[in-house]
Specification:
It is a single chain. The protein has 380 residues and is of the alpha/beta class. Helix 8 packs parallel to helix 12. The protein is built from twelve helices and twelve strands. The protein is globular and about 65 Å long. A seven-stranded mixed β-sheet has the order 2-8-7-6-5-3-4, sandwiched between helices. Strands 9-10-12 form a three-stranded antiparallel β-sheet. Strands 1-11 form a two-stranded parallel sheet. It has two domains: 129 residues, Aspartate Aminotransferase, domain 1, CATH 3.90.1150.10; 240 residues, Type I PLP-dependent aspartate aminotransferase-like (Major domain) (Aspartate Aminotransferase, domain 2). Helix content is 40%, strand content 12%.
Length: 380
């Protein structure tokens, strides 16, 4: 039996989302922008998905822009705000953001948009006061709600309130990469202007996501060619994907508390087993007892191990884990997130991430414990 403990990279398609996807595909015959009967059927499916998704997220349906996933949503948020603000508009972010934020941020810096990075503490969390201070005169602040490698969370609603209190009407816009937070921790978007979400992290298919954009937040589109999604995301919408996304998000939001309780128990078991096998293992990120951390994420530094080599050994033994973000798994460079914590390149290469999902069972965790104990050199 293989065990998948890399759910922060992607999650299996949920049963309900799959059923909704197939039903939508069976019904779709027209383009939702067409006015004939087939087009109206497609539009009705898309409108219903938008309404259900908005209700699950607690936002207005007009605030949703469907995208191909979190990466596109992040790029649209950053380039869209700074492009609309004009030359010289600055961006404030942190060095532990996903590459889908940091890479466009660096490119924008070469195009005349100053980049200000706010350092993080040993758990990967920025000081909100320092973020607010750095935001003076900036057009956009981007801070992720939950870190995909460490499990560290940030109260972005509190950050939005602090920015409003400090700068009033002159405050910068606030964006959050909320891809990992959705369905795992309470997601409060009060005071947040833009939030990126991805379907395949919550049981929807790959290739669909959404950018929550509060009305009044000016964006310049990344691409041109049509009026879909308010002109911000031209091209025929992925209707079936949107339908499946709405179902998956509804499930993730409704089942969040139960999932979090089960995930904490699973992560505690994994941590205990690794500690027995490797007594000098080090936990990276917030302590497990931190109630605000992602409940399903465990990031470890294993002395004398190379993370990528260990991932291969565990894979051959039947356990799927990762050495960091899936988007950088092919890189020879150490994790930029772990480097930002102050680890050396050698220490950062020794990182190992395990992440559980909604479908993870007690039996799978027990088998994973056996594999970890055996592979790390100590029998269970």
């Amino acid at each position: 039996m293989r065990v998948h403990l890399d759910h922060n990279a992607t999650t299996p398609l949920s049963v309900s989302a799959r059923a909704a996807l197939l039903e939508a595909l069976d019904r779709l015959q027209g383009n939702p922008s067409s006015i004939h009967a087939e087009g109206r059927t497609a539009r009705a499916l898309l409108d219903d998905a938008r309404e259900r998704l908005a209700a699950a997220l607690g936002v207005h349906e007009d605030d949703l822009v469907f995208t191909s996933g979190g990466t596109e949503a992040n790029n649209l948020a950053l380039s869209g705000v700074l492009g609309a603000a004009g030359q010289g508009a600055a961006l404030v972010t942190t060095p532990v953001e996903h590459s889908a934020v940091l890479e466009p941020a660096r490119r924008l810096a070469t195009e005349g948009h100053p980049l200000r990075l706010v350092a993080v503490d040993a758990a990967g969390r920025p000081d909100l006061g320092e973020v607010v201070a750095a935001a003076a005169g900036a057009a956009l602040v981007s801070v992720m709600a939950a870190n995909n490698e460490l499990g560290t969370t940030v109260d972005v609603a509190a950050l939005g309130a602090a920015l409003a209190e400090r700068y009033g009407r002159q405050r910068p816009r606030l964006h959050t990469d909320a891809v990992q937070a959705l369905g795992k921790v309470p997601l409060r978007l009060e005071g947040v202007d833009l939030a990126s979400l991805s379907g395949h992290k919550v049981g929807a298919p790959v290739g669909v996501g959404v950018l929550v954009r509060r009305r009044g937040t000016a964006l310049r589109p990344l691409v041109l060619g049509g009026g879909q999604e308010g002109g911000l995301r031209p091209g025929t919408e992925n209707v079936a994907g949107a339908v499946a996304l709405a179902v998956a998000v509804e499930e993730a939001v409704a089942g969040r508390a139960a999932f979090a309780e089960r995930a904490r128990r699973h992560v505690d078991n994994l941590w205990t087993s690794v500690q027995k096998a490797v007594p000098d293992v080090r936990l990276l990120g917030p302590p497990l007892e931190d109630p605000e951390r992602l409940p399903n994420t465990l990031n470890l530094r294993l002395p004398r191990e190379d993370g990528r080599t260990l991932v291969t050994r565990l894979d051959l033994a039947g356990l799927a884990v990762s050495a960091g973000s899936a988007c950088a798994s092919g890189s020879l460079e150490p994790s930029h997130v772990l480097l930002a914590l102050g680890l050396s390149a050698e220490e950062a290469r020794a990182g190992l991430r395990l992440s559980t999902g909604r479908a993870t069972s007690d039996g799978e965790i027990a088998h994973a414990v056996e594999i970890l104990s055996r592979t790390l050199g100590k029998a269970p």
